[in-house]
Fold each of these.
Amino acid sequence: MTFSAKIFIPLTNLCRDYCGYCTFRRDPGDPGALTMTPEQVLALARAGERLGAKEALFSLGDRPEAIFPEYREFLGRRGHRTTLGYLREVAALVAAETTLLPHANPGLMGERDLAALREVNVSMGIMLETLSDRLLGPGRAHDRAPDKVPSHRLRTIALAGKLAIPFTTGILIGIGETHAERVDALVAIRDLHERYGHIQEVIVQNFRRKPGIPMQGHTEPSMGDLLRTAAVARLLLGSEMNIQVPPNLSDADFARLPASGINDWGGISPLTPDHINPERPWPGLTALRRATEGAGLELRERLAVYPEYARRPEFVDERLRSKVQHLIDAQGLVRGDLERWRTWN
Amino acid sequence: MLSPEEAVALLEGDDALLPDLLEAAASARD
């Protein structure tokens, strides 16, 4: 059972999508609206590095430049036309100036964007979330969310495969999809992995209600539903796939999750909150280790690039290979002497 | 490997069958 010691870098929370379950996104001028400067990013990365984190997770809004003129001006002052161009600059900075390995999760990407970001990220990701076009309809979860068109997201995942980018994706359950649609999404991920062999991890994430969101009255998936879906994902995707369920979205019940066949807890930060679910802190490493060992498993730290890909040069850009190799042991996991998490709480 | 039809049936299965499903999934991982 693995996890990644990370810091979460919310490069910008401006976003052109208005998903019904999201508390992360902001419009310019909203309380909490934030776009980080390179200096702020680097300071955060260095603080994470001092604590022993290895992953710099860049998670951000999708194409805010498409609808916010003031944000376009911000990018222009920095010499960029797109968020993805700006992201490449700051990811390159973190890769060059710290020991952290960037993993970008910036929404839809085209082939040129992916190729540029691949040079400075050891892996990337986009949640497929669902394969249901119904959820784009009025009042549904993806109403007013143009970047959540499932075929567009499948295209990004396929392009990442074409470019040999170790890729993280997954499904979001309980947002109005049927069981058949849930399975369709998992099968679509399986099909893309069979074609390109690049899916390093599949996340099964459960919707949680939050005050103030359009879906605040929506029913949450039960623990039984989450366990059942994770187990079905394991049986659909096979024994080799890495399957993650975030532990902070299951409250005290998270210790039950390993029983469903998952083998990863995702990223855990010693420094930054889960900016997507800030009201739900990650369990401490002591509790995580206890839950893991209680299920008869061993807890180990992995990099943002999974062991299956870390040792394969065709999946890691040559500019990042020596950093990766320095950090891993013969299994492709973080070297024991670098597992600083053992001193966290 | 599980077919999509079988997967849907498992998602919609009786709660009493959940322990068996979990055991099969954990075995597949291990």
Amino acid sequence: MTFRTLTTVVSGLLIALALVPNVSAQNNSGIIEGIVTRLGTTEGLAAVRITITREGQDELIGEPDAMTDAAGHFLIRNASPGLYSIRARRPGYAAPMQDGVELEDGGAKKHIVVSLEKPLDITLALTPGAVLAGRVLDPLGKAAENANVQAFLVASDGTSRVVGNSGVDDLGMYRIWGLPSGKYKLSVEYRRGAQIFEDDRVVVSSSGGVFTVVAGPAAVVQDSWVKTYFPGTVDSNRAALIEVGEAGVIEGLNFGFQMAQSFKISGTVVDPGRSQRSGIPDFYLIPLGANDGKVLDAPRMSQNNLGIGPNRQPGAFEIRGIQPGRYILYAEDWANGVNLHDNFVVSQTILDISSDISDITLVMSGTSVVEGVIRTADQQPARNARVVLIPPEELRGHPMYYKEVKTDASGKFTIKGVMPGDYTAFAIDPAEFKDTPPPSSVYALPTFLGSYAQQGTVVRAKAEERVTVSIAPVRK
Amino acid sequence: MKPLLPLLIALLMAQAPQPPPLTPVTNPADNGTVEGNVIWASKSAPLEGIPVYLRKTATENAQEAQRRGVANSDNSGHFVLKDVPPGTYIVVAERRGYFRESDAEIRVTVPARGTVRNVDVRMIVGGTISGRILDMNNLGLAGVRVSTAQAVYLPSGKRDMQDRDSGSTDDRGEYRIRALRPGSYYLRANVDVWASDSLTYYPGLRDQSGAVAVTVREAQDTNASFRMEPRLKTVLTVSGTVVSTVPGVPADKVGEIWIWTRDGGATFYDNRADDMSNGRFEIRNIFPDVYDLFPDARDKDGTLYTSRTTVELVDRSVENLTLVASPLVETRGRVTLNGEFPAGRLEGMTLGVEVLRGLGPYATAPSAGGMSVPKPIVIDRENGEFVSGTLVPGTYRFTPGRLPPDVYLEDLRQGPVSVYSDGFAISDRPGEPIEVVLASPGGRLEGVVRNLRQEPAARTTVVLVPDATRREDRRKYFNVQSDSDGKFTFRAIPPGTYKVLAWESVPGAAWLNAEFMRKYEARGETVVFTKGASSTVQLIAIPKEPEP
């Protein structure tokens, strides 16, 4: 007998063994079934992703537990007993505000308790998201191919955040869908600067102050073709407010690129520990709004026009096509081979740009580590508590300055990569919000701070230092 | 401006003393001009707005090359590149959605202060595919990825489809894939979720053998709408306990379970048990199939203890499974060439491990920072004996590498039994030694490949395919590329009957695919090798076939 046949026999035995203990599997599981309808109808919605998430754990959005069939029906068999939230998502659809169902991240959500006694029967409803669409032309009247259109949702206090975007195709068309209802501003701009990846098929370079976008738009993109707001202004304060209702579709939002004076800035990043770093820092040029320092736009990476290659001096950068105004120039780099935002160095400076600026020097320094333990009211370690650092007021429009982590089983947390500065820290213990939804994401800032501002703890983060803090969890 | 340049270079060198600039300094006054036309080949019409630049070599970085200057063709298709330092260049015209008519490089030599005129770049204009993806209720499906797909052949010879260009559907279910080279394409759609069982081929079929290709024509839009039914595959959970035969193992929790499947090879799953104490494990999101499970139990030094357990997952999860962690064994063996070990003759030879069923040596090497690198097998230089590293229970073959040019693998033996085909089994006890039987001299085949016009065909793929009885053995296939004169040489061919074929272009290792070979079989020349035989052959390359 060869080894091969022996192995087959052993495998056969193991299969038999493996299948024996399996009989009781059904008895330990709860069943959840239900239907997802189109809002206001009894019509089932197909292809809806259903995810159940244990209370206190993170939702695995890409790993749904079920999908609805043609009748909108779904079935989950293997839920062990406990407290869950159940979510229904279908791209392009949103959940309306209703009793027990809240609007969050484009899906319908309910809190449920799974038990072994009886199957749960759930009904959820979705409604199509709003749509903004149109056509964008460059100043030569051609399709603004490869430009990017962003939709800013404007809050009642005038702050805005990007909630959707769309590329512009070869016909100049854009379409931003799946939007919550509300008031919007639209902007369009080109990606500028040297692209690192040639595979991208958008290779951008510059010569003589003119940007040539190879394999890209229909025309040469000039420095003066600046970010333009609908219906055709470079001033975000004069952008039209477009109001769209639930499931509303507004098409024909056509506009064209405006030309305006623009400037370039250049300089060098000095990093004492450069050999440990990638040496290719990312740059962010963050506009500070004219009105009381309130930030209007979300930050986006600004391309360093000096591409990588033998011709670039170490640390040299140039950013072009900047409209006059007050900006934060922020640069960050991280340790070689570690593409995680917990081991990086940063530098930032505030610039008033009203002409070209050269010889800017940014000196990189290490970030701060903030750590501590969160305890419940009865001094027990709070597991899965959310710890949030909120930046100083002038930076509150920028998600990148916020930090959010969860505590481990012993209530400990560590936040790495914190830009030095004064922060307000909050801890949210899920147990405190067992019956009601906990405060939603920190990015919905005015709501959160409005309710809990007095419960914050001031944290001073210093460069290259570890700061240990004690934070009391927020009370309802 | 002129005096500035040397100063600038001096400054640059001062800041970065190494390496010195690669480009020789030329006098800007000597610069020349390149001008020509971009032409829509099929219409003999001018093409406007195509950026043109010059590359020094075919591999020069595009950004670097463009820094010397880019010219857009004007409305009569004309372009002018000025201020070009004297030298030889390749003219490049690149824009998304436009394709060169011919692959041949356009080379120009710019003399000092000279102008190169009438450089014609002939191009093909791409087309688009657009349409709508509907769900079972005829509602547009948003967020669906629609891709063009082309038939490819995997290293195993299996035919498969691979995504090329893609687009995403909007809220109406509409998509548009642009910048496609004219030709025919398969189309498929999928939704972006784990365990998706939704892959659908145009015109709405789940089975790729029924896929219908759509034709893209120059500067035209082809409509292709179809219906799909998004659904999920069944996923199951396996849970239980890892027990050890050795005290102190595992030293810590079992963080991973390795899994081997016939089609998927070896992979590992994270232990997602809420409580991992006492060897508890739970692995989730596993598709129904037959698996070999290997617990990753380590002692305090990082040495692996494991064993193989075969589990068949049909339609329900498996609980309370016991996996055993046992010490692993090494395998001994020796290398022979024509019945002996000629000291010195096999210098530099390597021995690899091919996994037929199991995990191979990667899992057993102590992991350092997440990466496990197996130790190479060392062959004793005096007597050819070797000891493999530990292998987890399974079935393996040894694969010799870097052999002298006339030496081939004749057999693998374990005692009296040939394990050449089926491999040798590893259990938790040492087995009999393995003999790696090498022989020489192998056969030799030389030849020239020509195209249909009888010109020498460079860079064709020349393949030796074994006769029908040995087609299952990938180790009996050999391939080389013809050189710039169309010449090729095979060495160390094991005795037997083969067919030899040459292709101008062949997708992957398509010759391993029986269906593919049926199409071309008759175009091969038969060659028979006895030990050490030499022959020559003249071949006509099989021309490039239109895709897919």
